[in-house]
Amino acid sequence: MSVKFLVHHENDSVGVAVVDIAPNTDAEGRYRDQAGELRVKVTEAVPLGHKIAIKSMAKGDQVLEYGAVIGLATKDIGLGEAVHVHNLKGQRWN
User: β-strand 25-31 against 62-65: which pairing, if any?
Assistant: First the structure.
């Protein structure tokens, strides 16, 4: 299986797709600066460059990328869901 997403920091709640990922795909991901891989069952399409939830998040939870808060979940987000403007309020706009 080839790598389909990268995780920038060990505490992140999202990874970034390095290819288009189709729904119902078992996707392999890797951490950028450490050994180890993750496998996530992708539940919806995640286009190249978009985020995928590598943890479940509740509405109001902080979403972490690069080890930093990038925004808040505007609704519950399940493991393997796409994370974008439909379920994320960016920190810049708070």
Answer: unpaired
CA 9/CA 17 separation, integer angstroms: 15
Q: Can you give the C-alpha Rg of the chain in angstroms?
A: 12
- CATH number for the domain whose boundaries are 3-93: 2.30.130.110
Give residue 91's pLDDT band: very low, low, confident or very high (50, 70, 90): confident
Q: What are the residue boundaries of the structural domains of the chain, listed by start?
A: 3-93
Relative to beta strand 62-65, strand 68-73 is antiparallel
- Model confidence, pTM: 0.91
Task: Report the alpha-carbon distance of residue 74 to residue 85 in Å, rounded.
Answer: 9
Tokens 């399409």 locate to 45
